[in-house]
Amino acid sequence: MKFILLDDDLFSIYIYKLFLAPNRMIIIKNYIFMSAINYDKHIWEGWEVIDFINELKPQLDMIMKGDSWQKPFNNRKDLAKWCADNQPYYKKVIPEVVEYFCVIYNIN
Questions:
Q1: 35 — pLDDT class (breaks 50, 70, 90)
Q2: Which of 101, 106, 92 is nearest to 43 (CA)?
Q3: By the number of CB atoms within 10 A of the CB, which of 32, 53, 67, 72 ranks highest?
Q4: Using one digit for the tens of pLDDT, what is the confidence trace for 80-105?
Q5: pTM for the whole thing?
Q6: How far apart are CA 64 and CA 62, in angstroms?
Q7: Angle between the 76-86 and 49-65 helix axes, to the nearest 10 degrees?
Q8: 29: closest CA among 61, 5, 64, 13?
Q9: Cα dihedral value 66, 68, 72, 78, nearest 10
Q10: Max alpha carbon distance in the chain (Å)?
Q11: Are 24 and 35 in contact (CB under 8 A)?
């Protein structure tokens, strides 16, 4: 099984004898273990999932910290709509991008 360890930097690790159901996470000492997201999935004209995440992350960080005029998101539907409206070029919801931010910001 391949899982992603999220801390300040993203990097992959292999975890043995630990099973996580899809879309579940475990938090251990400030580390978040979550089901693997395919960051290399091609979305549109050379843009991959990680590219859209990197474009949206600074804006979303400001919103979720309360440093923006927009209120922080508290549900997946509003976050998905915001992501689709604010991501460059491709204006459809990308489930992997939404899932990434839902896990990071603990949005159900």
A1: low
A2: 92
A3: 53
A4: 999 999 998 888 999 999 999 998 89
A5: 0.65
A6: 6
A7: 120
A8: 5
A9: -170
A10: 45
A11: yes
CB-based burial label for 97 (10 Å; 0-12, 13-18, 19+): buried
Q: Which two tokens stand for residue 86?
A: 């604010």
- Distance, in Å, from the CA atom of 86 to the CA atom of 55, rounded to the nearest integer, reads 9
- Contact status, residue 12 vs residue 39, Cβ threshold 8 Å: no
Amino acid at 52: F
C-alpha–C-alpha distance, residues 68 and 21, integer Å: 34
Q: Which of 45, 54, 46, 41 is nearest to 96 (CA)?
A: 41
